[in-house]
């Protein structure tokens, strides 16, 4: 069962991180160059159909793997390999959620492209960091 959960987590992470890389590197530069918020809106309207379900799957599989790999997580033992990585992943998730809430309620309604660009790049960097943390946890630890 755990192998299937890990596989679903990896596929969902690929969709989440890949989508943000495409947005940051492929669409954002054109939107900024033309000062055209609709480029971002057009991408988001298509991507959210697979991005949001992927995020939900990431959350569900992440919680399952937390229970499986770090049942004593709330002891906050940073010397434990999995606990350390999972705490970093949840911390990164909190920052990602805060950026998303700020963008959704304050930047997108006002169509503020330049501050939104900062959020897009930040969430993309965080998404890549998520992948790094997952790789580090599974490979024996780079952190």
Describe the 3D structure.
It contains four helices and no strands. The protein has 143 residues and is mainly α. α1 runs antiparallel to α2 and α1 (2-34) runs antiparallel to α4. The mean pLDDT is 94. One of its GO terms (cellular component) is membrane. This is Copper resistance protein D.
Low-pLDDT stretches are none
- Please tell me how large the radius of gyration is: 16 Å
Number of strands: 0
Fraction in beta strands: under 5%
How many helices? The count is 4
Overall morphology: elongated
Number of domains: 1
Order of helices and strands: HHHH
Largest sheet: none
The separation of the N and C termini measures 27 Å
How much helix, percentage-wise, in residues?
Answer: over 70%
Q: Quaternary status of these chains?
A: single chain
Structural class: mainly alpha
Average pLDDT for all residues: 94
Keywords: Membrane, Transmembrane, Transmembrane helix
GO cellular component, one term: membrane
Pfam family, one: CopD
Organism: Winogradskyella jejuensis
